[in-house]
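#struct-help
A.M.: can someone run this one for me? Single chain, 579 residues.
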Amino acid sequence: MSAVAQVIDVNAGAEVEQELTDGFHLVIDALKLNDIDTIYGVPGIPITDLGRMAQAEGIRVISFRHEQNAGNAAAIAGFLTKKPGVCLTVSAPGFLNGLTALANATTNCFPMILISGSSEREIVDLQQGDYEEMDQLAIAKPLCKAAFRVLHAEDIGIGVARAIRAAVSGRPGGVYLDLPAKLLGQALDAAKGEKSLVKVIDAAPAQLPSPEAVKRALDVLKGAKRPLIILGKGAAYAQADETIRDFIETTGIPFLPMSMAKGLLPDTHPQSAGAARSTVLKDADVVLLVGARLNWLLSHGKGKTWGDAPKKFIQVDIEPKEMDSNVEIAAPLVGDIGSVVAALNNGIKSGWQAPPSEWIDAINARKEVNISKMSQRLLKNSTPMDFHSALGALKQVIKERPDAILVNEGANTLDLARGVIDMYQPRKRLDVGTWGVMGIGMGFAVGAAVETGKPVLAVEGDSAFGFSGMEVETICRYNLPVTIVIFNNNGIYRGTDTDPTGRDPGTTVFVPDSRYDKMMEAFGGVGYHVTTPDELKKAVDAGMDSGKPTLINAVIDPAAGSESGNIGSLNPQSVVKKK
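D.P.: on it. Structure tokens below:
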């Protein structure tokens, strides 16, 4: 317990020494008691001293230039560690900036806690115009998994404990914790304060599937002629890596990883169907979803993507309401992924037959064709580079450095990298996730570097980088081993649009031939400007070998991109032609 004062009480002539604590120290002590050792945030009124005191008490405090990026760092910390990442912001505008990251964390099932200072309740409720006045709790509630406000110092321990449990239990998500300014300065007897703290026990208990559900799922799977396993980022988050690998290799069933599940088994694994994605989705007759949702990323489980072959779905998810969300689930398996897959492993020990060779041969044939086509595009050595030739160089980098963490965002930069760059270890690919939002790049890169200590390679479209690019200063300030590659094609999708009136640049066009590498140099990092795949590979190797903050401006043909990347079908087109 951290003491903040000693006072003398005079009672019937007797002097009594009393040790006090306050809200600042109780928040810090509650976090430390629950093994929260890092805070991401932006300092300011009323939480500046909270950050200073936390740092003095041994918590690592990473200060950003914008709260949304700090929130993204906290969110990815939650994904990587299974502990809630903590983001600390000021009130009102700072809170709103952090709230974007909190909502994204909730959608992606990343455990995160957003802690924000706030104005006093009595002023907010009467709308009397306090500094940064806002009813933050009411705003946060619809956008996160849970939201709490603490008004009394003796309740801080309970408030922090409830936030932690809510963030990691069941389906993980974002939690908002509101701390009014007056709370932080409240004094409390130190002994009473210590007793008020709560150590959370078994915050995310195992949830076992029912034996009946396991049997039903295995019966459906055993009846398959063309089975397929789809691994989602929930499977990666579960950290049940060996259990999942045992199940896949024992059954012999082909698997298709979603982007953040890549590396649970290497993409080069013989059962990987990543290079035959269209074929397996269209032709499979039984699909086992492990930590993956049938949302827009999988065309909602229906339509042209899934072909005409009748399909049965088996779904593993800890959230019962996820079942039947888009199509009928023939065999729902409700429970945590580690427990469910372990139960499936036990159930296939006897009487299991490998998938028919015709199915495996068809997948392998399609993989060979697609890999051959792709390899030719990756070896192209044009100047300026196109996306494939640049990604071919980065594919080799990750092959040589499988322990590195890849952060990836953009339109074409993201969509093409998913298919080109093979991953070899779990939780090494971090990208935009369920919402497909841009702007996660630098926050994820900082969070990954801080939490793992591993080198990070952030591959960014020039548009995506713009959302969080100022955090290169943060990367330099903390001297993090982050190498950033910006695919610079002078614009969003392409750098070739024009304004038909001739007045302004096209709406998707940036300043031509920008030198992003100079940004990094301005803050003491290392910058490179490259125009060929060979130059790109050498620059990335040099940056990652050095462990120093590095930014590489990779010149891409302005005409190389396609509208909206691989999701152009979601971009509505006008049918009205102006005369």
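A.M.: thanks! The chain has three domains: 23-196, 211-365, 379-568.
D.P.: also worth noting: The radius of gyration is 26 Å.
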